[in-house]
Write a structure and sequence with these properties.
The structure is a single chain. It is built from five helices and five strands. The radius of gyration is 14 Å and the shape is globular. The chain has a single domain, classed as Rossmann fold (3-Layer(aba) Sandwich), CATH 3.40.50.2300. A five-stranded parallel beta sheet has the order 2-1-3-4-5. By secondary structure, it is α/β, with parallel strands linked by helices. α2 packs parallel to α3.
Length: 149
């Protein structure tokens, strides 16, 4: 299963990053995965700043998988900035986190998250969850056209 658009994985934990990439492989999700290890890197990628200043801004991710507990800029602030900018306002954002805090769930939806998923601890359940995410967001979901293209 693939689209030509990349997946933006925003994850600071190297173990969770490796697990997610392995889950993509096991589920035959062949999209390019861009990994941002903190909120600043995610925003730099999305807005074409910092080390991503020369990237093709017409190519937005198919979906952003966003952890909440990130260094430098946390996931909720990333989400706030994504929704506030016309270029990224319609980007599908799935919060994929270990947080079970009701306030985090509330805040994520209030800021415009499309989905909130707790990372399963069990590897097989994690593989299954990522497969379902891929099926929905990369195959079934009809994305809105972005203002840029």
């Amino acid at each position: 299963m693939t689209t030509d658009r990349p997946i933006l994985l925003v994850e600071d934990n190297p173990d969770d990053e490796a697990l997610t990439l392995r889950a993509f492989t096991k589920n035959r999700i062949a999209n390019t995965v861009i990994v941002a290890r903190d909120g600043v890197e995610a925003l730099d990628y999305l807005f074409g700043t910092g080390r991503h200043a020369n990237r093709d801004m017409t190519q937005m991710p198919a979906v952003m998988l966003l952890d909440l507990k990130l260094p430098r800029i946390d996931g909720l602030e990333v989400l706030r900035r994504v929704r506030a900018d016309v270029r990224t306002a319609l980007l599908p954002v799935v919060v994929l986190t270990t947080s079970r805090e009701q306030q985090d769930i509330h805040d994520a939806y209030a800021l415009g998250a499309n989905s909130y998923i707790r990372k399963p601890v069990d590897f097989e359940r994690f593989i299954q969850t990522v497969g379902q995410l891929g099926m929905y967001w990369l195959s079934l979901n009809e994305p809105a056209d972005s203002p840029a293209g």
